């Protein structure tokens, strides 16, 4: 999925969630910027994430992010790679050590625009995060990366208690829980 495919997929993207609907146009507009896939674009840039679930759709793999001090899905900066599915898979491998990752659907699963706070010389900016649904085996050993404090398979029933009122995570959880065609 290169820049043109991403733009096309975003133009076709439909969601029942008002928050997502509110920023689809901003994502599309960003695809026209030559620097949209590099972190040096300080107003905001694309990132790719993996919402990793087990085959039975009872657990999701979350990481406790060191810099943000929050439980989140795995993912990261595109660093020039316009194929955000590749970015999401690579970040998932790097941040978890998992080798059993399987793409459930190569299409966009979720999008989210969120503020990243200022850190050192990097000003506050937006991440335009494109998420993909990925499946993995829960029995595979996990490897915690230096970007994380912890990494764990969290039961769908416990995710809200862990992440609190994080609409981004809760939206992906709801999408996964309601989708019967993904099994």
Automatic annotation (TrEMBL):
SUPFAM superfamilies named in the record: Nudix
Matching Pfam families: NUDIX (PF00293)
InterPro entries: NUDIX_hydrolase-like_dom_sf (IPR015797), NUDIX_hydrolase_dom (IPR000086)
All copies of domain Nudix hydrolase, residue ranges: 43-176
Domain of life: Bacteria
Protein name as it appears in the record: ADP-ribose pyrophosphatase YjhB (NUDIX family)
Organism for this UniProt entry: Cecembia calidifontis
């Amino acid at each position: 999925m290169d820049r043109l495919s991403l733009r096309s997929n975003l133009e076709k993207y439909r969601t029942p969630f008002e928050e997502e609907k509110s920023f689809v146009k901003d994502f599309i507009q960003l695809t026209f910027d030559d620097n949209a896939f590099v972190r040096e674009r300080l107003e905001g840039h694309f990132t790719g994430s993996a919402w990793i679930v087990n085959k039975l759709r009872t657990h999701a793999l979350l990481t406790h992010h060191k810099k943000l001090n929050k439980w989140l899905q795995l993912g990261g900066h595109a660093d020039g790679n316009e194929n955000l599915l590749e970015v999401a898979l690579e970040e998932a491998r790097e941040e978890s050590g998992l080798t059993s990752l399987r793409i459930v659907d190569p299409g966009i699963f979720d999008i989210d625009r969120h503020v990243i706070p200022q850190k050192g010389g990097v000003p506050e900016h937006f991440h335009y995060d494109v998420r993909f649904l990925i499946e993995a085996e829960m029995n595979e050993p996990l490897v915690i990366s230096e970007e994380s404090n912890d990494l764990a398979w969290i039961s769908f029933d416990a995710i809200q208690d862990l992440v609190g009122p994080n609409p981004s995570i809760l939206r992906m959880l709801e999408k996964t829980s309601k989708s019967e065609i993904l099994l």
